[in-house]
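#struct-help
A.M.: can someone run this one for me? Single chain, 528 residues.
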Amino acid sequence: MNVIRLALAASIVTAASLLNAAEPAAPAPSPLNPTLPSLFIAGDSTAAKNDANPIQGWGVPFADYFDPAKVNVVNLARGGRSSRTFITEGLWDALLAQVKPGDVVLIQFGHNDAGALNDEPPPPLRARGTIPGLGEETKEIDNVLTKKHEVVHTFGWYIRQMIGDVKARKATPIVMSLTVRNIWHDGHVERGAGHYREWDRQLAHAASVEFVDVTRIIADQYEAMGESKAKEFFPKDHTHTNAAGADFNAASVVAGLKGLPKNPYAAWFSAKGTAVTADPIGWLNLPEPADPKLPTLLFIGDSTVRNGRGDGVGGQWGWGDFVAPWFKADRLNVVNRAIGGLSSRTFLTQGHWQRALALLKPGDWVLMQFGHNDDGPLNDTTRARGTIKGIGEESEAIDNLLTHQHEIVHTYGWYLRQYIHDCRARGITPVMCTPIPRKVWKDGHIVRSDNSYAGWARAVAKAEGVAVIDLNEQIAAYYDQLGATAVDAMFADAHTHTSEAGAKENARIVVAGLRALPGDPLAADAAK
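D.P.: on it. Structure tokens below:
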């Protein structure tokens, strides 16, 4: 029965390939071991096998990262296909015919979805584009290539179809963003063609499936190695890699899979796959500027700014998740890069600041708010996140029990100054926010931290000539007016993390603070 299904699948693929003879044909599928789980790849030429030396897709070396005695790796990506034509040509049905419960299907499309919905002569005729976006819009065409009437849907519609089909077979779909094209500007590589990367993220979230941000994983590494080195992976054009680049991308996909919150694939890896370091931040689902050409307002801080994955787990939200609606999306990127559990020190030492800086350009803005976690131990085996109290130049050398690295720990003020100086060196405007107050009452008033982190943040801002939004005082004063009973609804835990209602009110106060800056520099970008 399995042989019949495979033969049928092969015939469908062969027939479909006649619709686009200019693209390389896929190799005949190899028989699968029915006793093993299978890991399928659905994608385009950036993943597909390519006989046009020296071009190669990442799906070819990808198999080397897995143990063939534990999993079938099945690369059914096909060059030249979009999410639409992968379905309409029968390639998707051929893949589904082999999927069984427990399998995994990696879905990566977008490079070809921006093409024409229906080409006009002369050749090449491809008619492979999808309607941009995630909605239910359609367009009826008489396909110039297939000579058939066709209803064309949005990119989101086709990806949702794939996700639903895989789920219906009790298998696991994983949506992936695109590989990175060799397009650079001012030392930064392009992070996704068009809006497909963000659409992929939204599609995965809406369907409650995992998302691997391959674009970010690859782009971060390209920028670390430099433009000239990264260009060595692209021998013919800016999209397709050579064998070395394909292997680099394959390792990046593996890193992304290993970094997922739920990773059932650990037992499948070969020695080569086991050696790959898991992506450390993929689970955070950190946003990036939707349109890099626009100015960006970026937040750094702790869980009171962005908690967990920014999805409200446990009813806990940070204020940074509710600032964007106050501004016009076509005028300003609002990007919340705060990370729960970190201090002014560990946000820097764990590399999050450098990753955030890589997204910024002259003219952008950074709002910083730290302090809630800076009071912890300087050195322990759990978090090692504390900073020396104050704003001076004191330091302490430690052998970090958590990272096993030698480290020089500085004062809270020293780290804040570091962020300020880094911003100014790049033409970015820093704005200081004092830490929001905890729900701690004394004599009918919320306790302020004037003599500690709020006071120290103000002092650093004043000394550096940086604008400050005094959230500690302004929010505390607002809570004082509301009273204890009303303020209880603003929190999702005993005293630190706000509920959605509390986060929205804090966001309102942040926006008011921004609008009160000299000259109201963001007035033109305000939505209301």
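A.M.: thanks! The chain has a mean pLDDT of 92.
D.P.: also worth noting: The longest strand covers residues 296-301.
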